[in-house]
Design goal:
Length: 128
C-alpha cells in the first residue's frame, strides 16, 4: 500500500467515525420506548407513559440526544421511574417484561448518551 493510499484510508476511517459520532442510529432506543409506552398504557401507568411519550416525540422530531437526556432524567431521585413502577394488577409475565424494559432502556440510554452529541444536536437545531 502506498503512502497516499494509507493516508486516504485513514481519512476515510476518520470521516466514518465523525459521521457515527454526529448521527448515530437509534432504532433500538425507539423500539424500547414504543414497547415500554404501550406496556405502561395497558397497565394504568399513565404518568410514565406520558413521560416517555415526550421522549419518543423528541426522537421523532430529530432530537435524539435531548430525548435520551429526558429519558435518563426519569431514573434519578425519589419517586423516580426506578422507585415507582408498580404495574398493579399486571400478570407476573407482564411485570417481568416491564422491569426488563426499564433496565434495557436505561442501559440503551447510557450507551447512547453523549454530552458532545447533545451539544451538537442543540446547536444544529438552533441555527437561524
Amino acid at each position: 500500500m502506498s503512502n497516499q493510499e494509507h493516508i486516504t484510508l485513514q481519512q476515510n476511517k476518520l470521516l466514518s467515525g465523525i459521521r457515527d459520532f454526529i448521527s448515530p442510529d437509534y432504532p433500538e432506543y425507539q423500539v424500547l420506548l414504543e414497547e415500554l409506552i404501550e406496556l405502561l398504557r395497558n397497565n394504568n401507568e399513565e404518568h410514565w407513559a406520558n413521560y416517555f411519550s415526550k421522549s419518543l416525540g423528541l426522537l421523532y422530531r430529530d432530537r435524539p440526544q435531548k430525548s435520551i437526556a429526558h429519558s435518563l432524567n426519569a431514573y434519578g431521585g425519589m419517586g423516580s421511574f426506578n422507585d415507582s413502577l408498580c404495574l398493579k394488577g399486571a400478570s407476573s409475565k407482564t411485570k417481568k417484561r416491564g422491569f426488563q424494559l426499564r433496565h434495557y432502556l436505561w442501559s440503551e440510554c447510557r450507551s447512547k448518551h453523549n454530552y458532545f452529541r447533545y451539544l451538537f444536536d442543540t446547536l444544529r437545531k438552533n441555527k437561524p
